[in-house]
Amino acid sequence: MGAKVFLVEDEQSIITLVEYNLKKEGFKFLVSSNGEEALHEIKEQEPDLVLLDWMLPDLSGINICRSLKKDKKFQDLPIIMLTAKGQEEDKVAALNAGADDYITKPFGHAELVARINALLRRSKPRVAEDKAVYEDLVIDRIQRKVFRNEAQIDLGPTEYRMLDFFIKNPKRVYSRDQLLINVWPDNINVENRTVDVHIRRLRKAINLDGTKELIRTVRSAGYSLD
Length: 226
Known about the structure:
By secondary structure, this protein is α/β, with parallel strands linked by helices. It contains nine helices and eleven strands.
């Protein structure tokens, strides 16, 4: 279900926060609070990206980063350094050790997720394409599964195609004709009111108890994921 992110961190409050936010965004989450153990686990698990704390009780994040980048198998593994060290020389040291990005603590959830996604798009574009996320909604295109708040949602093939189309351009309003062309490309005889039927089915499926409405009806215009 999405890219595999490995966090190396010894502060439990940060582990808890990062785990909650990454799982909410559809990432698979792995963690270790021990540097030596983390180095071994990263090589075993082969994550798509590593979030690496600088200050660890045994092996420092800088040393872990250098060790991974010396290994031909992991030279291209994206690494984001997490640290309270905010001076320019510290950032230069992290980048010179092989880190691809650097985030200073404390950091915001939105910034962290944005940097992870940006780095995955550059380094592992296929991984980024295999997963689509909008708020608490996740589409796993490899398994053709949909999740909301980590709960799996069962969709029919037409509702799945419709949602996948919406999520590519959230907030954009599509007319019924545009949806017919893009969701039913091989069947030009489908009537406009068929779109309304599948919109209702999609709404019913993704609107779990306690979640907000995601499909917006725009009078005389169409529908959007908003």
